[in-house]
Design goal:
By secondary structure, this protein is an alpha/beta fold. The protein is 53% helix and 10% strand. It has 3 domains: 3-87, Arginyl tRNA synthetase N-terminal domain (Gyrase A, domain 2); 114-358, Rossmann fold, CATH 3.40.50.620; 404-556, Orthogonal Bundle (Isoleucyl-tRNA Synthetase, Domain 1), CATH 1.10.730.10. The chain is globular, with a radius of gyration of 28 Å.
């Protein structure tokens, strides 16, 4: 909110208090619709019921109050009681300084940190394309929080413990052909797939796998060495992919990290009567009937731990270590019941809990199924990224001289990886997603290349205008295109806050798309470099601010934008 919005709210609220004797909050939001002014409020519609007066009469009180505020050109009433405010061009253009301040990270806040748990791949398996959803959503939400000054702790909670390691160890003993350190991640996956194929013929293999994991939990030195090497091979492979995606973590902590932290939780749960004995000696937790949740197992009858055991220990460790204000688990929609049970158990343990949220997302499918390459039922993320870059390279070649770049390979990487990332983040995370290559690599649609192209166009204008760092200036007249772009740029901070509060990165992508559209309309309708001196200075300053907002927003979303394209 900039100063003029505050003044309008203050004047309107004072007038309502004087006229009707009530205290209320009146917000004036930006309007992007033609004929609705620059700022608008619908407060009169709800206030009318409270004061038992016609909405238009209440609207007139508000309009009369704000009409006298300096910087207001006209206040009018529309429809059943909307108050629309047209601002003086000087006031609107001067306010762009506010938008500029959101292009740099905010001052550090003193709130407790927010923990974000995302990506969490399984060891001994390549990153599948489905992992990119949690990875990119988690990183972008983390980036939004940090940009707005919040402290965060980002954690990659990797699946490096469990029966699957017993199965892999059995497979290696039976069919391994070389030392474990010589294996690639793909070769480990082949071993794992073979175990399951053979287990369909010989059910005893499943028992062997379980027993092997039990020995691993008990500290068998040979199995521990095997496990450690498998973790190393996997993480070495994944680090390169995370780098391509501009993803990083404060901590990578596998389930094994909590190996010595589970026993105290088990004892506490039994002591408090939360954990009870179920079938075959397993420890379970039951929930109130009204929750309609089935009992949850926290420890197997043979004493083996499971995901729930480890997640309870994980929550205890995080609360004790970082004293967070919230913990966000960025995990797909299929795990809704699991997290309801986890949070329900934590509530029964009566710990002092932060806000716990399952930041869920839907499933992703590809409209072009033919491009899929499957190995061991995994559509590998590196293959999808390579496919995206290959398609971007073809697009660059097709457009020939229309694309200007000194580094076609670097641009293709930027466009291709960006297309995948933007294609995910531009959709509401709560919905199932369909990824369409043609749409995502389009220069015209809501896509990464369109955002990247618009940033490059703005930079081209600045180079031609020999304006390395043009300053924002004030003008007394704004064209229709200038006015719309100005209002959109002023919405940057508000958009970031809405995306953070709701954990919905698509609100930011949709905003950046609108900025791109508004800038390109402005670029095509208004002269910039040949404009009169004052208009030229203002338009160069606004072009520079547009480029900064596009770049800042893109990098928050893990994207990169070129200066030439």
């Amino acid at each position: 909110m900039f100063d003029l919005q505050k003044k309008l709210s203050g004047s309107a609220e004072a007038a309502i208090a004087k006229k009707f004797g009530i205290s209320t909050t009146i917000h004036f939001g930006f309007s992007l619709e033609e004929g609705r002014g620059d700022l608008t409020t619908s407060a009169a519609l709800s206030l009318a019921k409270q004061v038992k007066q016609p909405p238009q009469d209440v609207a007139k009180v508000i309009a009369d109050a704000v009409q006298s505020v300096e910087g207001v050109e006209e206040a009018s009433i529309a429809g059943p009681g909307f108050v629309n405010v047209m601002l003086a061009s000087a006031s609107l253009s001067e306010a762009l300084q506010i938008a500029e301040s959101f292009c740099v990270p905010a001052t550090k806040r003193k709130d407790p940190p927010v923990i974000l748990d995302y990506s969490h791949p399984n060891i001994a398996k390549p990153l599948g394309v489905h992992h990119v959803l949690s990875t990119i959503l988690g990183q972008s939400i983390n980036n939004i929080y940090k940009h707005l000054g919040y402290s965060t702790v980002s954690i990659n909670h990797i699946g490096d413990w469990g029966t699957q390691f017993g199965k892999l160890a059995v497979a290696f003993d039976r069919w391994g052909t070389k030392p474990i350190e010589k294996y690639s991640l793909d070769e480990l996956l082949t071993l794992y797939v073979r175990f399951h194929d053979e287990a369909e013929k010989d059910a005893s293999l499943e028992d062997e796998g379980r027993k092997s994991f039990q020995q691993l939990e008990k500290g068998d030195k040979k199995l521990r060495k095997f496990w450690s090497e498998v973790v190393r091979i996997t993480m070495q492979s994944m680090d390169g992919l995370y780098a391509r995606l501009h993803v990083s973590f404060d901590y990578t902590q596998g389930e094994s990290f909590y190996e010595d932290k589970m026993a105290p939780i088990i004892e506490e749960g039994k002591r408090k009567g939360v954990f009870k004995e179920g079938k075959e000696g397993a420890l379970i937790v039951e929930f109130p009937e009204e929750t309609k949740m089935p009992p949850a197992i926290v420890l197997k009858g043979d004493g083996s731990t499971i995901y729930m055991t480890r997640d309870l220990a994980t929550a205890r460790y995080r609360i004790d270590t970082w004293h967070p204000g919230a913990i966000l688990y960025v995990v797909d929609v299929a795990q809704q019941m699991y997290f309801k049970q986890l949070f329900g158990i934590l509530a029964q343990l009566k710990w002092d809990l932060p806000v716990l949220e399952h930041t869920l997302y839907g499933r992703m499918s590809f409209s072009d199924r033919k491009m899929s390459t499957r190995k061991g039922n995994i559509l590998k993320l590196d293959e999808v990224l390579d496919e995206a870059v290959s398609r971007a390279e073809s697009l660059i070649q097709e457009r020939g001289d229309k694309i200007q770049t000194d580094d076609p390979k670097g641009l293709a990487e930027m466009m291709g990886v960006g297309a995948l990332v933007y294609g995910i983040l531009s959709q509401n995370r709560k919905m199932d997603m369909v990824f369409d290559w043609k749409k995502m690599l389009s220069f015209e649609g809501n896509s990464a290349p369109y955002l990247q192209y618009t940033h490059a166009r703005a930079q081209s204008v600045l180079r031609k205008g020999e304006a390395k760092d043009p300053k924002l200036t004030t003008v007394t007249s704004l064209s229709t295109a200038e006015r719309r772009l100005t209002k959109l740029l002023l919405l940057f901070g508000q958009t970031l806050e809405e995306a953070r509060k709701d954990h919905l990165p698509h609100k930011l992508t949709n905003y950046l798309y609108e900025v791109c559209q508004a800038f390109n309309t402005f670029y095509n309708s208004d002269e910039i470099l040949t404009a009169p001196t004052k208009s030229r200075a203002f338009r160069l300053g606004m072009t520079s601010l547009t480029a900064r907002i596009l770049k800042t927003g893109a990098e928050i979303l893990t994207l990169r934008v070129p200066d030439r394209m």
